[in-house]
Design brief:
By secondary structure, the protein is an alpha/beta fold. Strands 2-1-3-4-5-6 form a six-stranded parallel β-sheet, sandwiched between helices. It has a five-stranded antiparallel β-sheet with strand order 8-7-11-10-9. Helix 16 runs antiparallel to helix 17. Its EC number is 2.7.13.3.
C-alpha cells in the first residue's frame, strides 16, 4: 500500500450496493478498501480497527442510527471523515448528519464519478453534497440573509431624526445631555412634566430641574454606563415639586452624550389608590401576602367568605385560612428569583371561622413592589362548580361509551392503512432501490470500459432511465411515508405535497399553519390523507393557477380549508358521474372521524373544500412512526 492511497471503509446493509461500492473503490488507483460493514455497530468497529481516512456509510441501517455512528467515529478516530449515502434526501435528515460532522451527503443514484470524487474530497477535508439537496438545504440561509439588517444602518454616530422621533414617543421623560453637561434634547413628556418649552430647556443643566438638595445626586447620573433608579423630586418651571424617579446612562458616538430617564411618581401613587379600589370591588376574596406567608391586606369579600374581620387577619399566617397545604412553599419559590415570576392556580381547601371547610380555587399572582415581592391570592368557593362538574362527568361517561367503538374503529382502520403503506415503502427502499442502485453502479463501471461512441450513448440512455426510475421510486416512498408526517409535522408534510404539485404543474401555493394543538398520530394521518385527496383533485381537474391551504384550530379540532382559483364545477352534477369518488371519499373520511365536510364550487368561480375533525386522542395503541409510516395519494 503506497503512502498516498486513501483507506476507505464501506458500510451498507444491502449486499448488492455494498459489493458495487467495494468494486468501485477497488477500481480507483488512489483508493484502497480496508473494511466492510453491514450495520452501524460494525461501521464504528471497522473504523476503530482500520483507522480509514474515509467511511462511506448508508444512513438507514440496522443496529443504531447514523448521527450516533458519525459522533462515535469522529470521537474514536479523529482523522476519519464520513460521507453519507442514502435513498432519502429530506432536509431534516441531511442537516442532522451535517450537524454531527459528516463531510458529505449523497443520494443513491449519484454517478460513480461523483461518489469517487466525494471520497477524495472528504480525504482532503472538503465537503460534498448532491446538487438537488444543496438548493433545498441552503434555502433557509438565503431567507435569513435576505431578512438580515445591520443595527448600524439604523443608528449612526449621531442622533438620527428617526431615533429622536422614537424618544419623542417614550412613555417617560427623556433628556439627552451633551459632553459639557448641557441639555441638547428633551422629549414632549419631559416638556409637559416640567412646564418648559424646547428652547427654554436647551442649554440648561439637569441640576436646574431638581431642588437644591438633589443637585449633587443629579450630577452623578451623567457619564455612567448605567445607573440604578434614584428617587428624587423634580422642580417645575413654576417652582412646584413632584415626586420623581431618575435614572441615567450614556450613548455611544463620536462625542459621548448622556441620557436621563425621568418618571413622575405622582401618577404611580394615584395608580396605587386605584389598585386598592380594584381589590375592594372584586367579586372574589383577595389577599395580599408577603413571602413569609403573612397576610398584609384583605378585601371585604374575604371577610364574607371566611367569617373573619380583616383587622383580625392582618399579620396572621395564610395557613389559618388555607391549612395544611403547600401554598407557602409556592410563595417562597418566587423570592429572589432572577426570572420574572408567572402566576398560576391551585385547587385547595379553605377553612372558615366556624371550622367548616370548602373547596377553593386559588389564583396566585406575583406583585413586585419597592418593599419586595408580594403575592395576590384570589380565592373563590367552587362547591357548586364541583357539583355541576360531577354531574357533567357522569353524562360524559355515557357519551364516551358510545363514542369509544367508533374511535377504536377509526384507529384500527388508519393504523392498518398506514402499516400497509409503510410495509410497501420499506420494501421499495430495502429491495427495489438498492437493486437499481447497484445496477446503476455496475452500468457506470461497464461504460468506462466501452470505447465505441454508439455503445456509450446506449449506456448513457440506459443510465438516465435507471436514474429516472430511482427518482420516481424516491417520490413514491415520499408519497407512502412523508418524512415530516413521521416526525409529527402535519404542515411540513402538506408543504412537501404542495411543492411536488408546484413542480409538476406550476400551480403556486400558500400554506398557513395556525394549528397550535398537536394531533394524535392517527388523526394527523387522516387529516393529511383527506387534504391530499382534495389537492389531487386540484392538480387533476381544477386547471388552477394558485391554491391556498389553511390549518386552523377550531372547537378542540382541526379545520382544514383548501381554496383554488380554478374553473370550478357543479358538485351535484360531477358527483353523480361514475368514477368521480374523490370528494365523496373526503366527506366519508371526515364523518368517520366524527367531523364534517363542506364543498362549495360553481363553474368559473374556483372551489373551496373545508373539513373539520376532532383532535381528541382515540383509544388503542397510537401509531409508532417507525412501525407505521404514513403517506399515500389514494386510499
Amino acid at each position: 500500500m503506497g503512502d498516498n492511497r486513501i483507506d476507505v471503509v464501506v458500510a451498507d446493509d444491502d449486499p448488492a450496493v455494498r459489493e458495487a461500492l467495494a468494486d468501485l473503490i477497488d477500481s480507483h488507483p488512489d483508493l484502497e478498501l480496508v473494511g466492510l460493514a453491514i450495520n452501524h455497530e460494525q461501521a464504528v468497529r471497522a473504523a476503530v480497527d482500520h483507522h480509514p481516512r474515509v467511511v462511506i456509510m448508508d444512513v438507514h441501517m440496522p443496529r443504531g442510527d447514523a448521527p450516533s455512528s458519525v459522533r462515535a467515529i469522529r470521537d474514536q478516530v479523529p482523522g476519519a471523515r464520513v460521507v453519507a449515502l442514502s435513498a432519502h434526501g429530506e432536509r431534516e435528515t441531511v442537516l442532522n448528519m451535517l450537524a454531527v460532522g459528516a463531510s458529505g451527503y449523497l443520494v443513491k443514484g449519484t454517478p460513480a464519478e461523483e461518489i469517487l470524487e466525494a471520497i477524495i474530497r472528504a480525504a482532503r477535508d472538503q465537503f460534498s453534497m448532491s446538487a438537488e439537496l444543496l438548493a433545498d438545504c441552503t434555502e433557509p440561509l438565503r431567507r435569513a440573509e435576505r431578512a438580515s439588517w445591520r443595527f448600524e444602518d439604523l443608528v449612526g454616530n449621531r442622533l438620527e431624526d428617526s431615533f429622536l422621533e422614537l424618544l419623542g414617543h417614550a412613555p417617560c421623560g427623556v433628556l439627552i445631555v451633551g459632553p459639557r453637561g448641557r441639555i441638547e434634547y428633551a422629549n414632549a413628556h419631559t416638556r409637559h412634566m416640567f412646564g418648559y418649552s424646547s428652547a427654554e430647556l436647551r442649554d440648561k443643566r439637569l441640576r436646574d430641574l431638581v431642588p437644591e438638595r438633589y443637585r449633587t445626586a443629579s450630577e452623578q447620573l451623567i457619564g455612567r454606563v448605567f445607573s440604578s433608579p434614584s428617587a428624587m423630586s423634580g422642580r417645575r418651571r413654576d417652582g412646584t415639586e413632584f415626586p420623581a424617579q431618575f435614572s441615567g446612562g450614556h450613548l455611544q458616538g463620536r462625542q459621548p452624550r448622556g441620557v436621563v430617564f425621568i418618571a413622575d411618581l405622582s401618577q404611580l401613587r394615584a395608580a396605587e389608590s386605584r389598585f386598592r379600589q380594584l381589590i375592594e370591588s372584586a367579586p372574589d376574596a383577595m389577599l395580599i401576602v408577603d413571602t413569609g406567608g403573612r397576610i398584609q391586606a384583605a378585601n371585604n369579600r374575604t371577610e364574607a367568605l371566611f367569617g373573619y374581620d380583616r383587622d383580625h387577619l392582618i399579620g396572621r399566617a395564610v395557613e389559618a385560612l388555607l391549612p395544611d397545604q403547600p401554598l407557602t412553599v409556592s410563595l417562597r419559590e418566587w423570592d429572589d428569583s432572577l426570572e420574572e415570576p408567572v402566576g398560576h392556580s391551585m385547587e385547595l381547601v379553605g377553612r372558615r371561622s366556624d371550622a367548616k371547610q370548602f373547596p377553593a380555587d386559588v389564583s396566585i399572582s406575583p406583585l413586585r413592589t419597592e418593599e419586595g415581592l408580594l403575592t395576590v391570592l384570589t380565592i373563590r368557593d367552587i362547591t357548586e362548580v364541583q357539583r355541576a362538574q360531577f354531574v357533567l362527568e357522569r353524562s360524559l361517561e355515557l357519551l364516551e361509551v358510545t363514542d369509544r367503538d367508533r374511535q377504536a374503529l377509526l384507529s384500527h382502520l388508519v393504523h392498518a392503512q398506514e402499516a400497509e403503506r409503510g410495509r410497501i415503502a420499506a420494501d421499495i427502499h430495502d429491495d427495489t432501490i438498492q437493486v437499481i442502485t447497484a445496477a446503476s453502479l455496475r452500468l457506470q463501471q461497464l461504460r468506462r470500459r466501452l470505447r465505441d461512441p454508439d455503445e456509450q450513448r446506449v449506456m448513457d440512455k440506459l443510465d438516465e432511465t435507471l436514474k429516472l426510475s430511482l427518482s420516481r421510486l424516491r417520490q413514491l416512498i415520499f408519497d407512502l411515508r412523508p418524512s415530516s408526517l413521521e416526525h409529527g409535522c402535519l404542515a411540513g408534510a402538506l408543504r412537501g405535497l404542495l411543492e411536488q404539485i408546484r413542480t409538476e404543474t406550476g400551480i403556486t401555493y400558500r400554506l398557513e399553519d395556525r394549528l397550535t394543538a398537536h394531533p394524535p398520530a392517527e388523526t394527523m394521518a387522516l387529516i393529511y390523507r383527506t387534504a391530499q385527496e382534495a389537492l389531487v383533485n386540484v392538480r387533476k381537474h381544477a386547471h388552477a393557477k394558485t391554491v391556498h391551504v389553511q390549518l386552523l384550530g377550531l372547537d378542540d379540532g382541526c379545520l382544514v380549508r383548501i381554496v383554488d382559483d380554478g374553473e370550478g364545477y357543479n358538485p351535484l352534477e360531477v358527483e353523480s358521474r361514475p368514477g368521480h369518488l374523490g370528494l365523496s371519499l373526503i366527506q366519508e373520511r371526515a364523518q368517520i372521524a366524527g367531523g364534517w365536510c363542506r364543498i362549495e364550487s360553481e363553474p368559473g368561480s374556483g372551489t373551496t373544500v373545508e373539513f373539520w375533525v376532532p383532535l381528541g386522542a382515540p383509544p388503542g395503541a397510537p401509531l409508532d412512526p417507525a412501525d407505521s409510516p404514513e403517506g399515500d395519494p389514494q386510499p
